[in-house]
Automatic annotation (TrEMBL), chains A, B:
It comes from Symmachiella macrocystis. Residues 5-146 form the UspA domain. Gene3D superfamilies: HUPs (3.40.50.620). Pfam families: Usp. This is Universal stress protein.
Length: 155, 155
């Protein structure tokens, strides 16, 4: 019988990860698994400074981003849910798909729950590609969740 | 709270779908969901007859394939498991990814569990592309499972 001890749900704090969060929480509850909520801060390599900005961001820019991400993470999932279940929150820095796969390997994650965009828009292509790469490289099964699935239009 | 009432697991009777089946069964048990096991018979459109064969296959060729698929389906998942849970078995005919997505829509499936190849080989590309398309087009979340995940090598 399959045992899910550790479930990983990456979040980018967007609506796209909310639906995934709902599934991750349901699965964590059902299997009494630890829920790992991870936010990946993209590092600044390859980010071109804005032409209007004379200097690169100060040295603690990533540090500030991280502090603000850690604060935001404390609300996900909702504290009431977290109080009744085991939640591990973490931030990582690097290319999102790589950090997600790496985290899953290091922490021996049994299931990754991943939000992915619906159709249309450049954002779809971007997050779609993260999801695709995670599906290809993850050391464990991956559940992909699109927002607004199972939506029914009233007649 | 998420309710999974109907779980779909497509099978091509290969080892690649076995691991997916294990997960599908575990999830069906845990959520007390109906397990739909579906085999898609690829239709013969586009299949070029072998140069040595003078005639196209007789008219009941697909019928025979279907009968043999239905017989094989009766063993998946194992009858002992099926006796204690609700299992629906079905065959469809057409392009696999399309039939899987269509079945999920028609039967209001809540979760698709899909086996996918490991690395290497042409087969990887083929089944990989089925998985990718299902992930993109499915009306519900998709769990992709690779065989041999979480394998540990003894020191």
């Amino acid at each position: 019988m399959i045992k899910l001890k550790r479930i990983l749900v990456p979040t980018d704090f967007s609506a796209y990860s909310e639906e995934a969060m709902t599934y991750a929480c349901a699965f964590a509850e059902q299997f009494k698994a630890e829920l790992h909520v991870v936010h990946v801060l993209q590092d600044l390599v390859g980010v071109v400074p804005d032409p209007g900005v004379a200097f690169p961001p100060p040295g603690d820019y990533m540090g500030e981003l991280q502090t603000s991400a850690e604060k935001a993470l404390l609300q996900i999932p909702a504290p009431e849910w977290a109080a009744k279940n085991t939640v591990v929150r973490a931030t990582r820095q690097g290319p999102p798909f790589l950090e997600i796969v790496r985290y899953a390997k290091e922490l021996e994650i049994d299931l990754i729950v991943l939000g992915t965009h619906g159709r249309g828009g450049l954002a779809h292509v971007l997050l779609g590609s993260v999801a695709e790469r995670v599906v290809r490289k993850a050391p464990c099964p991956v559940l992909t969740v699109r927002p607004g699935e199972h939506e029914f239009v009233m007649p």
